[in-house]
Structure formats: C-alpha cells, structure tokens
Design a protein that fits this description.
The complex is a heterodimer. Chain A is an alpha+beta fold. Chain A is built from two helices and five strands. Chain A has a domain of about 55 residues: Ubiquitin-like (UB roll). The radius of gyration of chain A is 23 Å and the shape is extended. Chain A starts with a strand and ends in a 19-residue tail after the last helix. Chain B has a single domain, classed as Up-down Bundle (Ferritin). Chain B has a two-stranded antiparallel ribbon. In chain B, strand 1 and strand 2 form a beta hairpin. At the A-B interface, strand 1, strand 2, strand 4 and helix 1 of A face helix 2, helix 4, helix 5, helix 6 and helix 7 of B.
C-alpha cells in the first residue's frame, strides 16, 4: 500500500500519510461563528470543569449547543460558555518566570515542618 | 486561542528536547506546548478523519430510524445516532486545538481530500444490520479507541475518554437487539446470520493493513499517538468476539477460524486486502452516496446558519 493506513483512526483504518492535507484553507463563502470554550459543573459541590469547545452564532445558542454536545447523560447541572477569544492565559513559554515564585517557597507546604510523631491530631 | 508568540529567540533544539522528555515520561502534550510539525500534522490527519468517520457513521444506521420496529428501538437508535454526532463534535473540537479549522475540515471531507473509515461505505440492507453494527463495528471501534484514551496529546485523549464511555452503550444495545432477534422466528435468525456474514470481514479490515505493510506506524508509536500495532488490535478483537458469536448462536464466516491451543488465541483466514483498497479508493458500494448526503447537509442547511448569524448580529449589544 502506497500510503500509511493506521487502525487508530477510531472507527477504523484511515490514511495518515503526507498526501492527506492538513493546512487550513480560508473558507470563502461562509460565516465564521466564534469558538466558545465550554465548562460544565458535574454536580452540586464541584467546580465547573473545561470539557471542550464548539462554534455558535451567539452566547445563548452556545449554551443550547453545549447542552446537546456535552450533557446527554446527566453529566452536568450547570454550563458556562465563554468566547475562546476572551480568555487570557499564561504563556507556556513563560513557564519558569511565571511559576518559579511558588517553586522555591517550600515553607508554604505542611510537609516543610517537622513535628514529633507523638503530637496528636497534627 | 492562537499559536503562542515568543518574545525571545527560540532555541528549537531545546524545545525539541523538552517535547521528547514529555513523551518519554508519558506526560501529556497540551495545545499551547511547542510540538514538532510532523506530530501536529499527524494528529490533525488522524483526529479529523476520526471525526469524519463519526459524522459519516450516522448515515448507515440513520437509514433505519424511520423503519425501526418499535418505539423503544427507535428511541435507542436515535440516541445512538445522536451520540455519533456528539463524538464527531468532541473530535473536531480536539482538532481545532491544533490549529485546524472545523468548517475547512468538513470541506476537505466533501472534496474527498480527507477520508473516513471504509466500514461506512457498506449498505445496511436489513434491520439486523443495526444490531451487527453495534456489536461488531462498535466492538472493533472500542478496541481501537480504548488505547487512544492514553494518547500523548491531551485533548485527543480526553475526547476519547468521553467517546469510550458512550461506546459501551452502543455495543450492548446492538448485542441485545441481536439476542432478541435470535429468539425470534427462523427468518429473523437467518437475517442475523446474513448480516454477520456481510459485516465480519469488513470489521476485520477496520484495523488496517498488516503491520509489515504499515510503513509509518513506528513514528506514531514513538510519539505515543498510537499504542498498539494494527495486527495486535485485530487479534484482540477476534479473541473477544468469537465467544460472543458462540453465545449468540451465529457462525462467523471463516472456515479457517479456530482456537490455537498453544497460544490460547484464535487463528483466522486471510483478509482480502484488494477489497479494502478498493473501498478506501472510493469504489465501495456507498462512497458517493455518503459524501453526497454530507454535501447536501452542508449546502441545503446553509440558510439556517446564515439566519442564525444575521439574528446574532442584529441582537449583538442588546443583551449585554
């Protein structure tokens, strides 16, 4: 076989060789609905957790679509959607300077302190 | 989110080492991490085509929605077909974290530049096919997809965890449907056997060509995208399925199929790879029909998308 075909395309073998194009071509005629990131609270008492993304024309439609895509089996009791473009994130390239301040403050952790074992409830 | 921009000069070799260390430690690669271009492209190809398979996969079973024999079966089938749409959405979402564009991926599918699994180019001739697809096709998909839950790319692995949770329902509803038919009339039992006869070999082909004809697999394995070889997964599927067929009371259409007492594994006959190649090349029974329907869904419904956009634009600001 001229191309590579791999089983791990989920529902069955698909070609994964270089002849399959991957570079996005700008779509000419169509709208671009904004990308929304979706967060779901699994049940009361838990935080909302990021579950994925979807495209929708507006906020309200995004919530409806998120319900259909991400909560078909009671996976959630509350949904947040936010436009991906509105999220500000730390840059992975700043990894060291951004998080270094917490790295060298070992005294912020309970294990830093040595307490004799016979002190109760500590 | 766009690709990260760097304020300082990049040491590509250092980034490459960091990436390799992540893979070596079996940690996950996340969207904004630096990754080799080949890794990104391989993932886009695989995830996009996986997504396409889910979307096209709605069609063969969807053909039976209006002909399901009871309201119960119809509700189950509707839920299943809706799940396939959901799986496609999870996967397009994962592909977009790599910089792919969802609408563009659909265009590539419709223009036949990207493929989907060859299994969906076979027709569903009788209602028993719905059961056999759940049992065999989704059973094979589970073999493929469970290892993908540990794929090195975080968003793909997380999407697969969701998919796998739902896939178990798919397989069980299919098997239960077949058990019900096997308790029925001789005609119903014959219908099940006929469906098994038609789907068994194509389901084995779902795992792809033999390992010695799979030239780039090694790279995907090294990157932790792929966890098991095609032949390994196929063998696992056969060993799982044979006892299920016995319980059901159907015969798998392979006279060479037998248990090897030394290894405890099943040996099976030679697969007709010329058929697989023909279907993949576009010459299966339903290739044109599947793509034509996907194209119609995009084009005929374009007015809905446009109307929703117009509505959103008109009300922008009013809600805030």
């Amino acid at each position: 076989m001229s191309t590579d075909v791999t089983a791990e395309g989920g529902h069955g073998a698909v070609p994964t060789g270089p002849e399959v194009p991957t570079t996005p071509a700008p779509s000419v005629s169509r709208r671009d609905w904004p990308l929304y990131e979706v967060f779901v609270r699994g049940k009361r008492g838990l935080n909302h957790v990021h579950v994925g993304s979807l495209h929708a024309p507006d906020d309200e439609m995004a919530v409806h679509a998120a319900r259909d895509v991400y909560t078909r089996r009671n996976e959630g009791v509350s949904i947040w959607v936010v436009k991906a473009a509105d999220i500000t994130a730390s840059s992975p390239d700043e990894k060291d300077p951004m998080f270094a301040p917490s790295g060298d403050k070992v005294y912020r952790h309970p294990t830093f302190y040595e307490i004799p074992e016979n002190v109760p409830h500590m | 989110m766009s690709a990260p921009t760097l304020d300082r000069p990049t040491d590509e070799a250092a980034l490459q080492r960091q990436f390799e260390a992540t893979i070596a430690a079996d940690r996950r690669v996340e969207p904004r991490d630096w990754m080799p271009e080949g890794y990104r492209r391989t993932l886009i190809r695989q995830i996009a085509q996986h997504a396409h398979s889910e979307i096209i996969g709605m069609q063969p079973e969807g053909d039976w929605l209006l002909a399901a024999p009871s309201l119960r079966r119809k509700a189950i089938l509707l839920a299943k077909v809706q799940d396939e749409a959901g799986h496609g959405m999870y996967l397009y979402s994962a592909a977009e974290t790599l910089g792919a564009d969802r609408a563009d991926l659909t265009d590539k599918l419709i223009e036949k530049k990207q493929k989907y699994s060859s299994i969906f180019n076979y027709p569903t001739l009788t209602y028993a096919d719905v059961g056999v697809i759940g049992w065999l096709v989704d059973g094979a998909a589970i073999c493929n997809q469970v290892p993908l839950c540990r794929s090195s790319y975080g968003p793909y692995a997380r999407a697969m965890i969701r998919v796998c949770k739902e896939e178990s329902f798919h397989q069980r509803q299919g098997y239960e449907l077949l058990m019900t038919m096997m308790r029925g009339t001789p005609e119903q039992r014959a219908m099940v056997q006929d469906a098994v006869d038609r789907w068994w070999w194509p389901s084995l082909m779902m795992f792809g060509p033999p390992d010695d004809d799979s030239p780039n697999s090694a790279q995907s394995m090294a990157w932790g995208i792929k966890r098991h070889s095609n032949d390994e997964l196929r063998q696992r599927y056969v060993d799982m399925t044979v006892p299920q067929a016995e319980f059901l009371g159907v015969t798998l259409p392979d006279p060479e199929l037998r248990l090897d007492p030394d290894t405890g594994r099943h040996r099976f006959g030679a697969i007709d790879w010329s058929e697989f190649k023909a279907v993949l090349a576009g010459n299966g029974p339903c290739n044109d029909e599947r793509i034509a329907r996907r194209r119609a869904a995009r084009d005929d419904n374009a007015w809905v998308t446009e109307a929703a956009t117009a509505y959103a634009e008109k009300h922008a600001g009013a809600v805030a």
